[in-house]
Design a protein that fits this description.
two-stranded antiparallel sheet; elongated; Helicase, Ruva Protein, domain 3; 8 helices; five-stranded mixed beta sheet; alpha/beta; single chain; 198 residues; Dna Topoisomerase Vi A Subunit, Chain: A, domain 2; binds zinc ion; 2 domains
């Protein structure tokens, strides 16, 4: 028999990754089983090493090898701006613009009650603590333009309305429903520069 429970398990693991459909998962599984064993096992070693060495920053929730992360501890970053993003990859995307020098906070999820992500799924207590510590002048909600992004912006502006904060959001021009990482650095940089009150 060509396939087995072990093969199926491998395919299932690949399929569970974002952006990988069943066909691609099968192709990856066949590929790994057909190359020299030591080459294939290098992948599992790399996964193991990275997964074991990374943790979540206790201050901003960004993935990091040192806790707190360098974005939180660097004296060269500006405390007067705090940028709220959905995910770790958004921090990478925004950093690639080379525009922003403030601090970050990673929510982990956007508000999406139908998918089971209510206010408790967002790292709100950590965000409030971060605002308390930094006392930023501006809170930038760099969330993707989508129904979930809008709901989250609405929720956060209501929640923080009594704080002395300029709450801003990215300008229009980003494709609705698209992730920040696919919007292109220039488009994102423009949307970032032309942000407006939320
Ligand atoms: Zn951090």
């Amino acid at each position: 028999m060509l396939k087995s429970p072990r093969f199926d398990e491998l395919v299932a693991k690949f399929s569970s990754l974002p952006g990988i459909g069943r066909k691609t998962a099968q192709r990856l599984a066949w590929h790994l089983l057909s190359i020299p064993k030591e080459k294939a096992l290098e992948l599992s070693t790399a996964i193991q090493n990275a997964v074991q060495s990374y943790t979540t920053c206790s201050t901003c929730c960004m993935l990091t090898e040192v806790n707190p992360c360098t974005l939180c501890t660097s004296p060269e970053r500006d405390d007067s701006q705090l940028c709220v993003v959905e995910s770790h990859s958004d921090v990478f995307t925004l950093e690639s613009m080379n525009e922003y020098r403030g601090r970050y906070y990673v929510l982990g999820h956007l508000l999406s009650p139908l998918d089971g992500y209510g206010p408790d799924a967002l790292g709100i207590p950590g965000l409030l603590k971060r605002i308390e510590e930094l006392q930023p002048e501006e809170l930038i909600l760099a969330l993707k333009p989508s129904a979930e992004g809008e709901a989250t912006i609405h929720y956060l502006t209501e929640l923080l309305q009594d704080h002395e904060l300029n709450i801003t959001r990215l300008s229009v021009g980003l494709p609705f429903g698209g992730d920040l990482e696919y919007s292109g650095t220039l488009t994102l940089a423009n949307a970032f520069k032309r942000r407006f009150p939320a």
